Structure formats: structure tokens, C-alpha cells
Amino acid sequence: MSSLALPTSRATWAFGVLAVTWFAAILFADGFDSVSNFRYLVQTASFLGIVAVGQTLVVMMSGIDLSVSGVVALSAVVCAKVASGTGGAATAVLVALLLSALVGAVNAAGVVWLRVPPMVMTLATGTILAGALLVYTDGSPSSAQVPLLDTLANGRLLGVPWAFVLWLVVTTVAFWLLHLSRTGRYAFALGAGEDAARASGVPVVSTAFTAYVSCAVLAGVAGLVLLGFTGTSSLTMGNPYQLLSIASVVLGGTSILGGRGHLLGTVGGALLLTLLTALLTSWNLSEGVRQVVLGVLIIGLLLVYARERRT
């Protein structure tokens, strides 16, 4: 079941490794000891962190969402197209978030009512989204300057990036939902064993819809912030966040099989992955090598968790 005991959980390892990695980056790479670099890292980590928080909600109930990359692109592309047309910024943001929520509801419906495995259902949804966006944009996504999103992505509050503040707010709400609310206890119970949870009266439908819709909406929020950050949309802008959001959850100590973990560990995982990516980039390693390193790290952790679960 859910636990608030962060100090004794594996999540603390994520922050410990993060601290060691950051110290090593300061020693062996240039620029990591500056305030501006620190500010930029937490700003960019926020984009991944918001997606990863939603992914945590799904993974905790023994699910997974492979459509988040498509939802990130969907949100940004639709918002840019509507805002650059006659819809206006507020309408564009609202439409983007509603479509994101709809994708989450479709994922939940497929998993709960059609009994499609979460990996297959969400992968299919993501594939459909990629094709639909290609048709919708005819291969040429729009650009748009939305003042609200620009401020949210690039602005600061007392020197702190607004994107990081938004991530903290999202994390706080998700922390309450997962660790302090009844819905969170249901999610942990489903992750520990669906059959036992059903027999205990856990409302599977409402719990699944809450998790998948929340995950999709947060991916949509990340897409909007990315649109504000770059000022343009892309059909592939969400691709990096699919694997990295799952990696953040796993690195943060949450079992990929569900039922065990802590949301704050995901925060440490997202910061660690962003720092590692920046460190590998500063060493002029290619994108391919960076993906190999991150992939090997994720596979190793999955093997460790799978072995631990069997024992």
C-alpha cells in the first residue's frame, strides 16, 4: 500500500545519485557550478518532470502509458494551429487540454472495458495520434506565440523559472492524489494485485480513468509549455519524453510492475536524467551514444526490479 516513508525508500537513492552526479559534473565539466546553468537545468527538467509525474500515476497501478509522446505533440500542434487561426489563445489552450483528456479516457476505456494490455493499448493510441497529426497538419505544423505559454516556459518568479514552479505545483497535487487520497490507495492496491484489489472492492474503473486521464492531461500541459519554450510545434517534439518519463519513474525507485514507489522519487529521477543528458552533451557525445547509455541504464534497473519482485 501507499507509504510516506521517503527516507527508507529507494526513492532516496535517486536524490543521492543526483547529488553525487551533480558534484561530479561540477568537477569534470564546465559550467555546472553557475547559477544560470542550474536555473536552465531545472527549467528543462520541468518539461520532463511534468510528464513523468503523470506516468507515475499510471505505473503505480501496474499500467504504462506509451502515448505520452503523441499527446505532447497533439497538445502543442493543436494549440499552435488554433491560436494562429481565429480561435484565440484561451480557446487554443482549452481545446488542447480537452483533447489530451480525451486520449487518456480512450486509453482507460481500452484497458478497463476491452481488457487490452496497457502497453498495447497506449502504443496503438500513440500510433493513431501520430498519423492523425500528420493528416491534420499535412506535414507542416504551425508556429504560434502565445504570451501566457511564453511566460510560463521562459519567465521567472523571484528568479525561479515559472516552469519549475508549475512542476512543483503539479507534483504537490499529484502527491496528495497518490499518497494521501483514497484514489491513491486504490492505485497502490491495483498495482500490488488486481484480482485481490477487485475482490476487496477497489473501484477499478474510476481509478483507471483518474490515472490515465491525469497522465494524458499532464502530457498535454508539458506540450503547451514546450510550445511556449520554442514558439513552434513539431510532430516529433514529444518523442524524447516517452522513454525518459518511464526512466524517471524507474530511476526514482517506483517498481515498473506497480504497487511500490514514491512520487518524489520521480522528481529525483527526472532531475537526474536531465543532468545526465546535459553532462553527456557537454562531453560532445552524440545523440545515439546518449540514447544507448540511457537505454542500458533502464534495462539494468528493470532486471533488478524484476528479480526483486520474484524473490
UniProtKB/TrEMBL annotation:
Gene Ontology molecular-function annotations: transmembrane transporter activity
InterPro entries (alphabetical): ABC_transp_permease
UniProt keyword annotation of Cell membrane present: yes
Signal peptide boundaries: none
Residues passing through the membrane, by range: 12-32, 38-59, 89-113, 120-137, 157-178, 208-229, 241-258, 263-283, 289-306
Keywords from the UniProt entry: Cell membrane, Membrane, Transmembrane, Transmembrane helix
Subcellular locations according to the entry: Cell membrane
Family matches, as Pfam families: BPD_transp_2
Membrane topology: Multi-pass membrane protein
Chief site of localization: membrane
A single Gene Ontology CC term: plasma membrane
Top-rank taxon: Bacteria
Cross-referenced CDD domains: TM_PBP1_transp_AraH_like (cd06579)
Protein name from the UniProt record: ABC transporter permease
Species, as recorded: Streptomyces phaeolivaceus
The organism's taxonomic lineage, starting at the top: Bacteria, Bacillati, Actinomycetota, Actinomycetes, Kitasatosporales
